[in-house]
Amino acid sequence: MIKNLLEFGTRHLVRGISRKSDLVVDKACGVWIWTVDGRKYMDLTTGIGVTSTGHNHPKVVKAVQAQAANLIHAQVNIVLHKPMLDLVTRLIPVMPSRELDSFFFTNSGAEAVENSIKLARTATKKQNIIVFTGSYHGRTIGTMALTTSNTIYKAGFGPLMTGVHVAPYPYCIKCPVHRSSPKTYSSTNCCSDPITQLQLLLKQQTAPQETAAVIVEPILGEGGYVAPPADFLGELRKICTKNNILLIADEVQCGFGRTGKMFAVEHYNVVPDILVMAKGIASGFPLSAIATRKELADTQTPGSMGGTYAGNAVSCAAASATLDVFKEEKILENHLNKIRSAQIFGLLKTTITPLFQSTTISLDIRGLGLMVGIEFQNAPPGFAAAITTEALEKHDLILLTTSIYETLRIIPPLNITKEEVEDGMQRLEKAVKSVVEKWRSEGKL
């Protein structure tokens, strides 16, 4: 049966889709998924950070069922609908600032990013956009131009949107200043070279009077789950304010509770002009949004924003139910995310790190909250992918790599239990140990 389904999918789904496995999934619950042949897997990917409250959370399922029985679709350019208005009332109090009180809802993260660029250009009457190395903002023609995390996302699709300039993101272990003076400069004592380079870019490549916005992921996602030094976003905010440039925070992956706060910018006490959100916002239903100040939103002509499925009623109901889960299970208020995060980081350091003591590989375990990255520095190409394969095939554990470097990412549900974390880390330890032993025996390590 599975073979036939795989052959059918291979024949009729476009070749441009890549998959991390050949699993054909039948059902899911919490951190677990089952294939059509009944095999059970632990999912530490949450659909790349989407099923934030776990697969099929009962609260979300109930809200979706009730909404589907009442109203499935109400087109936003024709009518208002109550689920969207209810969601707005729920979102305003959890924004990094009450000033971010004007919303536009659409379907995907890429759509939301594109609409943030449209808004920035309209509001400032300027054209150019600054992005950062390692960024991922989407796969549409516009957002491909903004994405720098991997050439695979845009190679062969040009010409792309013009007016995009790239500044270095503060990736400390790759920074030439840190590498030349590791005892002097580190992530806790940043050299501020990325800020210097941004200031040079504004003098040499795109003048402030031509620059509409700087768009940044507060925590790099596809770029490797890299958190910036403590002062970086604050300095970025100052530069944008001084030069009348809008600051756009792309929180598609790091937002909605993933880092231990509702939005990652809150760790740095920074308020963007436009905040982009998606993925975990609706526990698996297609929904994204931008939030901004009313005076910026009001610069746009009625009719310039819209979309057939923008702010779908069922997806909005799922998003409100997701916020209910956050409150009822005290995911943020009770520091559940922080407790599980500390547990994961602790287990990684005590169980995974010792496996590399007799190798040339060193580990950089990083991230915030339940957005955890493990970079295997000096590892041969394919090492991280080999771990995900071993974990899947031998230990029924689904993991993803990220970035152009040898990096794993761990993205569990925000309400994962203590026992599930222990189980997952034990599976990961076994997979890593097997790959280390195999590669060492083959002379690769």
TrEMBL record:
SUPFAM superfamilies the UniProt entry points to: PLP-dependent transferases
Entry cofactors: pyridoxal 5'-phosphate
GO MF annotations in UniProt: identical protein binding; pyridoxal phosphate binding; transaminase activity
Keywords assigned: Aminotransferase, Pyridoxal phosphate, Transferase
Pfam families: Aminotran_3 (PF00202)
InterPro entries per UniProt: Aminotrans_3 (IPR005814), Aminotrans_3_PPA_site (IPR049704), Class-III_PLP-dep_AT (IPR050103), PyrdxlP-dep_Trfase (IPR015424), PyrdxlP-dep_Trfase_major (IPR015421), PyrdxlP-dep_Trfase_small (IPR015422)
Family statement drawn from the similarity comment of this UniProt entry: Belongs to the class-III pyridoxal-phosphate-dependent aminotransferase family.
Name by which UniProt lists this protein: 11083_t:CDS:1
Organism (species): Ambispora gerdemannii
The organism's taxonomic lineage, starting at the top: Eukaryota, Fungi, Fungi incertae sedis, Mucoromycota, Glomeromycotina
